[in-house]
Write a structure and sequence with these properties.
By secondary structure, the chain is an alpha/beta fold. The chain has two domains: about 140 residues, no CATH class; about 210 residues, Spore Coat Polysaccharide Biosynthesis Protein SpsA, Chain A. The chain contains 13 helices and eight strands. An eight-stranded mixed sheet has the order 3-2-1-4-7-6-8-5, with helices on both faces. Strand 2, helix 3 and strand 3 form a beta-alpha-beta unit. It is globular, with a radius of gyration of 23 Å.
Length: about 400
């Protein structure tokens, strides 16, 4: 292959990265004064049904249910439903102990998280339906802080600020940083009506949404993204709350993280293929920027791998070919790279300022920036390999 083709690929990837970085920076600059704004609370206190799907969560289910019972939302307007999806441990036994505390506990044969959620939604009687993963827990005021986002009639779903439990090792420290910056990005997506995931740890929905559009897709392993994209396809809105926290368990090992992200990325591929209709001007920035760039980014990852392999096998280190080749390497693409780095650092600084109280380790932020591109490439490679080999996806913790 000619060097010109390789250079064309390089410039294409560099332009994409620069475009995405500048796009988010501009969204941030335009809305930075409104990032921390919250809707005005009102007297509306609808009945809320919280559906808790659980599969082998004996270590977490008690903490999860205790967090709901400790909520400052009126007890007579909070319905809690635990759906044990055929657990093989003591999850059901532990959950049953909470029946005397107004918790409704159901047991069914194992059939996946989406089916467990739908089972609970059918039995829920609240005007608002919330979903809370069995390995997650909310704070006392989480529900009250999320509810005012429904003041806007077009808003049919609200997501909580998903955070990790206190990290115990390097892998979890890295995920803590990632989750914080994901919150930051998702909040920005609210300003352009482009939120396309309602995280499983804790999200709230208007009940009639499920009556109108159907429940969670039982054939989709990333059901929390699929339902959000379905909501977007109906031109309804999703909002993200930064001050309503939910804490979730994250993989403690690299192997666990790889399995989790492989599943997420495979689910993302399926959802992107299912909702190609979201691409286009009808859906604003979601259809013209966010969705197309997401698909292009996958192709860009493989372009980067191809270029890296090309240079490794078909070029010689500059030290052996003289100053001419060295000067050749100092070209506009490196200027773009430095620009992206500087913009990324500005982005990181903005995020750190906004989440000062989260105890973010600056060293971990640097390691996150350095390692993220490599990790995301590995996750995508794993996901696509398993897609090509038709490996079955299953519901597992995380």
């Amino acid at each position: 292959m000619e060097m010109g083709t390789v250079k064309l690929i390089e410039y294409g990837v560099a332009f994409l990265a620069l475009y995405v970085t500048i796009f988010y920076i501009l969204v941030y600059l335009k809305n930075r004064r409104h990032l921390a704004e919250v809707p005005q609370p009102n007297s509306w206190e609808p009945k809320i049904s919280v559906v808790v799907p659980a599969y082998n969560e004996e270590k977490n289910i008690a903490r999860c249910l205790d967090s709901l019972l400790n909520s400052n939302y009126p007890k007579n307007k909070l319905e809690i439903l635990v759906i044990d999806d055929g657990s093989t441990d003591n999850t059901l036994k532990i959950a049953k102990k909470y029946e005397e505390k107004r918790v409704k506990v159901f047991h069914k044969e194992n059939s996946g998280k989406a089916n467990a959620l739908n089972y609970g939604i059918k039995r829920a009687t609240g005007e608002i339906v919330a979903t809370l993963d069995g390995d997650s827990y909310i704070l006392k005021d989480t529900i009250r802080k999320m509810l005012p986002h429904f003041n806007e009639e077009a808003v049919v779903a609200v997501t909580a600020a998903v955070k990790t439990e206190p990290p115990k090792n390097f892998i979890q420290e890295l995920q803590k940083v990632e989750y914080i910056y994901t919150l930051f990005s998702r909040r920005l997506l609210c300003f352009i009506d482009a939120v396309h995931v309602t995280p499983g740890p804790f999200s709230m929905f208007r009940r009639w949404v499920f009556d109108e559009m159907g429940g969670f897709d039982p054939h989709n392993i990333l059901e929390d993204q699929e339902i959000a994209m379905r909501i977007q396809s109906h031109n309804y809105k999703i909002r993200s709350s930064l001050d309503a926290s939910v804490y979730t368990e994250v993989p403690p090992s690299f192997g666990g993280l790889l399995r989790q992200r492989t599943r997420w990325h495979r689910g993302g591929l399926h959802n992107a293929a299912k909702y190609t209709n979201l691409i286009g001007p009808k859906y604003g920035d979601l259809g013209m920027v966010v969705m197309p760039l997401g698909l292009i980014a996958v192709a860009a990852i493989f372009a980067i791998i191809f270029v890296a392999i090309y240079y490794y096998f078909f070029t010689v280190h500059p030290a052996f070919v003289g100053m001419g080749s060295f000067l050749f390497l100092i070209n506009p693409i490196h200027v773009i790279g430095v620009t992206i780095l500087l913009l990324t650092l500005a982005w990181v600084f903005a995020g750190m300022q906004f989440f000062k109280g989260e105890g973010i380790n600056p060293l971990m932020v640097i390691l996150y920036i350095v390692s993220y591109a490599y990790l995301i490439t590995l996750f995508w490679l794993s996901a696509i390999f398993k897609e090509l080999t038709m490996k079955k996806m299953t519901w597992e913790a995380g």
